[in-house]
Amino acid sequence: MKITEEIIAKDLLSIQAVFLKPEDPFTWASGIKSPIYCDNRLTLSAPAVRKDVEEGLAQIVKEKFPDAQMLMGTSTAGIAHAAITATILDMPMGYVRSGHKDHGRQNQIEGRLEKGQKVVVIEDLISTGGSVLEVVNVLREAGADVLGIASIFTYGMKKGMDRLSDAGVVNYSLSNFDTLVGVAADEGYIKDSDVSKLRAFIKDPSDPAWMKL
């Protein structure tokens, strides 16, 4: 079965891995009021959704990165997804820690990575792009040829897209904010009147004016 953006959007909404609450927004650590909350770790606890996600990630790797030799998960959310996807594809995998270990060999990259090896990074969520680009930079410094990123969901924020572009990194996500909002309206998770609020938010998350629409 071809895993589409709409299928993944329905999956994420059904288990509240992505939750939309425009009338009573969440507060991010930065203080920004957000109508969306995303926790893709919940996909690991839902076998049917997890199956769609891992098959979809494998599909991206096969179609978009046919030369890939290894998958690298982001710590910690991408590790399980990288492992399951690598099993589907019969590929080696590893992961990148957020920092060096303070004991043993003090590794930051776990798994055997050879210089010049063609790597795809597996990430659960792309927002501003900062954390995944740290992983990309660590891998590049270790001599990896990072082909790109396969992720579960992206907000599609301009800041994140610009950062990836500036770093010369391509990302393919299983689903995205725009698709999810459309599916949420069609499936009755939100009112039609909420759609303009949500799209105004994603255009400029730092501007609280979306709440008054």
Quick structural overview:
By secondary structure, the chain is α/β, with parallel strands linked by helices. It has helices at 5-14, 47-64, 77-89, 130-141, 158-166, 177-186, 194-203, and strands at 18-20, 26-27, 33-34, 36-38, 70-74, 93-96, 109-110, 118-126, 145-154, 171-176.
Give a description of the structure:
With 213 residues, the chain is an alpha/beta fold. Helix content is 38%, strand content 22%. It contains seven helices and ten strands. Helix 6 packs antiparallel against helix 7. The N and C termini lie far apart (39 Å).
Number of helices: 7
**End-to-end gap:** 39 Å
Which class do the helix and strand fractions yield? alpha/beta
State the strand order across the main sheet: 7-6-5-8-9-10
Query: Which term fits the overall shape?
Result: globular
Unreliable parts: none
Query: Residue share in helices?
Result: 25-40%
Beta-sheet strand percentage? 15-25%
For the sheet with most strands, the description reads: 6 strands, mixed
> Could you state the order of secondary-structure elements as H and E?
HEEEEHEHEEEHEHEHH
